[in-house]
C-alpha cells in the first residue's frame, strides 16, 4: 500500500490552498468501515499523506520531527474540516476524526508516542491458528505482532490484547524490533497508550517468548501461573481485578468503556456497557479481597458525578466493620439528587477462581425520603420485590443531575 500513502484525510468540502487534495469523494470500495455509524459522512474531498516515506527502516517515526508525529500534527490542523481518516496500512480502516484525534494525546510532549491511533487490532487466522494481533506497524518500519488465542475465550483474548500492545509499545519506544527468543513479561490489565508504561513491582505478569512467523512477530505464551495464589489477603491487585472482570462478564456480559483508578485505597471504578442494551453498570473493582463484595449501580446513562458517587459510597461501606448483604440499607443522603439513602440489591455472585469464595456484587438502589424510612424500618426486601434493581430505578434521580451524561 506504499503508493497509496499511509493515511488519507476525508474532508467535508475542499479546503482552499491545500495542495494535493482531490475534489471528489474518496472511493468507498475496499475500505474497512465496520466501526462507523450508518450515517457517517465520507465528505466531498480528500488528501492522502505519506506517499514518500523514507526507505531507512531505522528512521524514528515518533521523534519530534519524525514523519508520524508531523503527519499527526497535520491531521489535527485539518480536523475541523475533516470527517475521518483512512489508515491504509491498517487494512484501510476508517476512523472517525474525533476518535482519531483523541487518541493522539499531546504531540508537543516528546514522551507521547500515540502509535495505537494508527493501528487496527483484531482476530485473524494464521497457519491454522486463531490469533489476536495488530495491523499497521509497518507504518513505523516495525513488524506487526500476533499471539494465539483460545477460540471463544474472552480471557485469552483480553490477555493477548495486552501482550501485543505491550510488545508494540516497547518497539515504538526503542525504535527496534523485538529480538527472536526474547522474553516479555506483560502486567495483567496493562493500560497501553502513548506514554511510557509504569510497572509496579507487585503486579502480576504473564510471560511470553518472541518467535518469528514470516515478517510478523508471534508472542508464544508461557503456561499461566495460579493467579489466585495467596487469596484473599495476598493476591496481587491486578490479578484479582482481571479475575473479577472475567467472572463479572460471565454473569453480566458487558464491555469496559471507562475506568477511573483510585490509590487510597487502591481500586478502580469501571463503567461497563451491557450487551443486553439495558444501560450501563458502574462497578468497583478491587475491594473484593478485603470484604468479598464489590459495589455497583445499574444506570441508564453514566456521568463523572455518578462514577465519583459509586467510589465514595464504596469507601463508606469499606470503612465499616459490617459484612454488607442484599437488603441492607445505607444512610447516605444526597440532597441535590433527592436521595435519602440506598437499599442494596443482589447483583449476583462472581466466581474468581476454583476453590475460592465468590464475590458478592451489591447494587445501589436509590430511595426518596418517603421510601427510605419504611425500607430502613424492615421493609427493604418488600421494597426490592416491588422495585427490582434496574436502570429505571435511577431515572428520576438522574434528571436532577447537573452536567449531563456521557
Report on this model:
The strands form three sheets. The protein has a seven-stranded mixed β-sheet with strand order 11-12-13-14-17-16-15. A six-stranded mixed β-sheet has the order 5-6-7-10-9-8, covered by helices on one side. A four-stranded antiparallel β-sheet has the order 2-1-3-4. Strand 9 (205-213) and strand 10 form a beta hairpin. It is 24% helix and 27% strand. With 406 residues, the chain is α+β, with helices and mostly antiparallel strands. It has three domains: 2-115; 120-221, no CATH class; 237-398, no CATH class.
Condensed summary:
The chain has 406 residues and is an alpha+beta fold.
Relevant terms:
single chain; 406 residues; alpha+beta; seven-stranded mixed β-sheet; six-stranded mixed β-sheet; 8 helices; 17 strands; globular
Ordered list of secondary-structure elements with their pairings:
Elements: E1 7-11, E2 45-49, H1 67-78, E3 82-87, E4 93-96, H2 97-104, E5 120-126, E6 129-135, E7 145-148, H3 154-174, E8 183-187, E9 205-213, E10 216-221, H4 237-251, E11 254-263, E12 266-274, E13 280-285, H5 288-291, E14 293-299, H6 304-318, E15 329-330, E16 341-350, E17 359-367, H7 369-386, H8 395-398
Parallel strand pairs: 7-10, 14-17
Antiparallel strand pairs: 1-2, 1-3, 3-4, 5-6, 6-7, 8-9, 9-10, 11-12, 12-13, 13-14, 15-16, 16-17
Amino acid at each position: 500500500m506504499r503508493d497509496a500513502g499511509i493515511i488519507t484525510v476525508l474532508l467535508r468540502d475542499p479546503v482552499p490552498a491545500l495542495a494535493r487534495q482531490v475534489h471528489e469523494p474518496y472511493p468507498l470500495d475496499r475500505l474497512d468501515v465496520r466501526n462507523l455509524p450508518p450515517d457517517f459522512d465520507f465528505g466531498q474531498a480528500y488528501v492522502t499523506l505519506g506517499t514518500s516515506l523514507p526507505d531507512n527502516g531505522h528512521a524514528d517515526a515518533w521523534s519530534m520531527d519524525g514523519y508520524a508525529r508531523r503527519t499527526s500534527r497535520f491531521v489535527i490542523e485539518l480536523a475541523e474540516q475533516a470527517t475521518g481518516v483512512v489508515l491504509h496500512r491498517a487494512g484501510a480502516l476508517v476512523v472517525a476524526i474525533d476518535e482519531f484525534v483523541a487518541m493522539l494525546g499531546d504531540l508537543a510532549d516528546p514522551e507521547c508516542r500515540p502509535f495505537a491511533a494508527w493501528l487496527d487490532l483484531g482476530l485473524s487466522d494464521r497457519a491454522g491458528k486463531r490469533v489476536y494481533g495488530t495491523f499497521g506497524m509497518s507504518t513505523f518500519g516495525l513488524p506487526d505482532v500476533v499471539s494465539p488465542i483460545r477460540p471463544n475465550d474472552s480471557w485469552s483474548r483480553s490477555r493477548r490484547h495486552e501482550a501485543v500492545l505491550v510488545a508494540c509499545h516497547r518497539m515504538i519506544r526503542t525504535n527496534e524490533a523485538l529480538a527472536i527468543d526474547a522474553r516479555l513479561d506483560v502486567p495483567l490489565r496493562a493500560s497501553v497508550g502513548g506514554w511510557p508504561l509504569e510497572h509496579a513491582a507487585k503486579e502480576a505478569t504473564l510471560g511470553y517468548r518472541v518467535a518469528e512467523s514470516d515478517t510478523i512477530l508471534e508472542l508464544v505464551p508461557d503456561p499461566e501461573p495460579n493467579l489466585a495464589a495467596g487469596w484473599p489477603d495476598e493476591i496481587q491487585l491486578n490479578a484479582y481485578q482481571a479475575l473479577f472482570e472475567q467472572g463479572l462478564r460471565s454473569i453480566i456480559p458487558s464491555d469496559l468503556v471507562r475506568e477511573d483508578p483510585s490509590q487510597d485505597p487502591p481500586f478502580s471504578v469501571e463503567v461497563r456497557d451491557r450487551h443486553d442494551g439495558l444501560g450501563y453498570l458502574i462497578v468497583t473493582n478491587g475491594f473484593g479481597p478485603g470484604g468479598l463484595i464489590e459495589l455497583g449501580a445499574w444506570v441508564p446513562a453514566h456521568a463523572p458525578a455518578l462514577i465519583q458517587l459509586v467510589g465514595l459510597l464504596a469507601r463508606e461501606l469499606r470503612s465499616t466493620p459490617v459484612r454488607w448483604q442484599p437488603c441492607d440499607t445505607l444512610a447516605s443522603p444526597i440532597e441535590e439528587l433527592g436521595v435519602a439513602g440506598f437499599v442494596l440489591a443482589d447483583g449476583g455472585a462472581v466466581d474468581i477462581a476454583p476453590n475460592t469464595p465468590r464475590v458478592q456484587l451489591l447494587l445501589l438502589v436509590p430511595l426518596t425520603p418517603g421510601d427510605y424510612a419504611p425500607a430502613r424500618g424492615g421493609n427493604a426486601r418488600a421494597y426490592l420485590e416491588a422495585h427490582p434493581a434496574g436502570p429505571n430505578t435511577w431515572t428520576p434521580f438522574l434528571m436532577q443531575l447537573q452536567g449531563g451524561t456521557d
